[in-house]
Amino acid sequence: MGTRAVYTFIDDSSTHHVFKHWDGYPANALEAIASAKSRAWSLPRFEADEFAASFVAVNKTKEGDVRLTTHYDRHGDLEWRYEVRHRPNDKDLYIKIYEITYGNPNHMLMGQGYLCDLLEKWTERYQTMIDNLSRREKLRLRLV
User: Fold this and answer.
1) Is 59 helix (H, G, I), strand (E, B) or coil?
2) Which end of the chain is more exposed for a tag (fewer CB within 10 A), N or C?
3) Domain span at residue 77?
4) 28 and 16 Cβ atoms separated by less than 8 Å
5) Which comes out higher in pLDDT, residue 75 or 141?
């Protein structure tokens, strides 16, 4: 089972959605977004379609794991969704993180802010969670 997520890239003239089958938890998702910066236009230039293409190029490793989609509501098994944008004078990409509960049409906003700040917050939170798992749980999750 994967932790499915949709990433929505937004600029003033367009919106583009990408489905990712694996690693949708915020710590991994934020790293996936950050890695796409290496293939995208340097900020402050941001075009949603171009950044979405960069995201796919950097994160697709095999068939079916990353693909374009028409909207996040096309996937009934999502656990997370992310909105990614950059506006004039932003210091970095601005991200909104939503957790999705099956059967609940209201997605819970779990965090928002600049990518650089969220990376620090969520990777620390993720590491704390991992540190608190028992060895058996880590083995089950293939973290050891």
Assistant:
1) helix
2) N
3) 5-140
4) no
5) 75
